[in-house]
């Protein structure tokens, strides 16, 4: 297949004039004519570190992108060279060479990071060109700009009609190729030989600890691993003798150090065989017009001033990360308390112990996810939020315990209240029976589990609210008891009077019987005396008659 475009050399895609990024219409015209899918390789690094040389090699040329040999930088803005892909005939290879970072003549770090972020967003393979070794400064810079590029992509998403999901996120960001120039270290670790890829992975490996300083160490590495799941590392020796470096464009391979030639060949082989096609959300392969749209969209957002400068982006990043860390910590706390706590709990100490355990875990989550919380502002905010959570839980615990205990008391004492209404205890001795029943129901209430810390207070409030009922029953009991006592006394008196009357009546009856008996005895005596007199008279008569007879 014939290539769609033949560019004899690179053209400026995005001009950098006095710190302002402006898109070159001629470059856009070239892009608009390319219908093939694009493999976009961009390189970023410090000025005068050999970026342009590597890009020329990818183009199959010694000359093309300007290779600086003096203290003054050559490449300004972002330059583009579209060439036929040497291994994929149906693709176009787009090479983007960028203005060197840290140019003392420019003095605008914000402009550097904008170009850096554009290179990341426009490429499918991003080459990060650094000197000598992988150090913390290079890692931090890549981290900050990666976060900045994500913010730029977010600000541009509405113009690009992007819909975010995990797969799109991974596919959108480029593969990372870290190139180490003038590398002088030995690739060894723990006495064993390692590869350049091992060196990169070791350099980006987080440390296992929750210390805040280590979290600041880990966060950039975790971020880079997230944004660049596919990573490759190449090391390059010095190309040639120091005095010949100014002539690098004119030197043949046999005039360069063999190790350097081999290293460049390996680098180009990897780019040609493993660099992926630039894609958008939904797996859409980017062609020239799509890349043209991306360039215009991103540069317009930068020109609008919506993208923060480097210093502010670090502050914004810290704020975003720390706000997210606070949210994650609170979410973890809520999850743990939701799993551990079933309100109401029996004691306040139990609730505070559960809160303390979850609070410690929440701070560990915050520490793990926070970033540059130098003045501990967000940690203090988290502490305030957790204190509010604790207070709210304590309040909820009181309310739930009180409501539950009130309902329980109503359930237990409800029948007793109904009995009171029916007058069951409105009788002499009723108060004693009422108190006895109340004690039985209190014992039943105490036996119920999980009443919470308001159990005793709610019971006492309930009993106090029923004191008037108890007093009424007592007064009724006393009144009825006094009346019953009076009636009993009257009954006793009546019975005593009746008994006395019966006793008197009996005495009278006995007296009458005695009188009658005396009367009968008197009559008997009179009758006997009359009999005796009659017998005496009769005897006298007989004696007289005998005398007379004699």
TrEMBL record:
This is Guanylate-binding protein 5 isoform X2. Pfam families: GBP (PF02263), GBP_C (PF02841). It comes from Pteropus vampyrus (Large flying fox). The keyword Nucleotide-binding applies. Residues 35-276 form the GB1/RHD3-type G domain. Keywords: Coiled coil, GTP-binding, Hydrolase, Immunity, Innate immunity, Nucleotide-binding. Belongs to the TRAFAC class dynamin-like GTPase superfamily. GB1/RHD3 GTPase family. One of its GO terms (biological process) is innate immune response. The keyword Nucleotidyltransferase does not apply. Signal peptide: none annotated. It comes from the Eukaryota. CDD domains: GBP (cd01851), GBP_C (cd16269). GO terms for molecular function: GTP binding; GTPase activity. Residues 480-527 form a coiled coil. The gene is GBP5.
């Amino acid at each position: 297949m014939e290539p769609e475009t033949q560019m004899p050399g690179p053209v400026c895609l995005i001009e950098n004039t006095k710190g302002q990024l402006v898109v070159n219409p001629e470059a856009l015209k070239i892009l608009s004519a390319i219908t093939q899918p694009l493999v976009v390789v961009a390189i970023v690094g410090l000025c005068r570190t050999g970026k342009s040389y590597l890009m020329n090699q990818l183009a199959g040329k010694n000359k093309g992108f300007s290779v600086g040999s003096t203290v003054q930088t050559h490449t300004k803005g972002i330059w583009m060279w579209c060439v036929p892909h040497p291994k994929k005939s149906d693709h176009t290879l787009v090479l983007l060479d960028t203005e060197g970072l840290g140019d003392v003549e420019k003095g605008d770090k914000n402009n550097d990071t904008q170009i850096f972020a554009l290179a990341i967003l426009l490429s499918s393979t991003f080459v990060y060109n650094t000197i000598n070794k992988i150090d913390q400064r290079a890692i931090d810079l890549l981290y900050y700009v990666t976060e900045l590029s994500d913010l730029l992509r977010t600000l541009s998403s509405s113009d690009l009609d992007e819909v975010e999901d995990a797969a799109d996120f991974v596919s959108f960001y480029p593969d990372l190729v870290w190139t180490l120039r003038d590398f002088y270290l030995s690739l060894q670790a723990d006495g064993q030989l390692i590869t350049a890829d091992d060196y990169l992975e070791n350099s980006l490996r987080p440390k296992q600890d929750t210390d805040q300083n280590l979290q600041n160490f880990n966060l950039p590495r975790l971020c880079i691993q997230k944004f660049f799941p596919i990573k490759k590392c190449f090391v390059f020796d010095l190309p040639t003798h120091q005095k010949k470096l100014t002539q690098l464009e004119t030197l043949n391979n046999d005039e360069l150090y063999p190790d350097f030639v081999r290293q460049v060949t390996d680098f180009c082989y990897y780019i040609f065989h493993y660099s992926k096609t630039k894609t958008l959300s939904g797996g859409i392969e980017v062609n020239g017009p799509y890349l043209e749209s991306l360039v215009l969209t991103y540069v317009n957002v930068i020109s609008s001033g919506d993208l923060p400068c480097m210093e502010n982006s670090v502050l914004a990043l810290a704020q975003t990360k720390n706000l997210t860390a606070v949210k994650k910590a609170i979410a973890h706390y809520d999850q743990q308390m939701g799993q551990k706590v079933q309100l109401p709990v029996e004691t306040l100490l139990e609730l505070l112990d559960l809160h303390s355990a979850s609070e410690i875990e929440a701070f560990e989550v915050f520490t793990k996810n926070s970033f540059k919380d130098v003045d501990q502002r967000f940690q203090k905010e988290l502490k305030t939020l957790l204190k509010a959570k604790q207070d709210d839980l304590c309040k909820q615990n009181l309310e739930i315990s009180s409501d539950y205990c009130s309902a329980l008391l109503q359930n237990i004492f409800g029948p007793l209240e109904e009995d009171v209404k029916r007058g069951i205890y409105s009788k002499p001795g009723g108060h004693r029976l009422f108190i006895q029943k109340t004690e039985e129901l209190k014992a039943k209430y105490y036996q119920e589990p999980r009443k919470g810390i308001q159990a005793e207070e709610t019971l006492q409030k309930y009993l106090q609210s029923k004191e008037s009922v108890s007093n009424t029953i007592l007064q009724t009991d006393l009144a009825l008891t006094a009346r019953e006592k009076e009636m009993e006394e009257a009954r006793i008196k009546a019975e005593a009077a009746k008994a006395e009357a019966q006793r008197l009546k009996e005495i009278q009856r006995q007296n009458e019987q005695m009188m009658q008996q005396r009367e009968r005895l008197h009559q008997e005596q009179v009758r006997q005396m009359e009999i005796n007199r009659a017998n005496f008279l009769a005897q006298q008569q007989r004696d007289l008659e005998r005398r007379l007879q004699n």
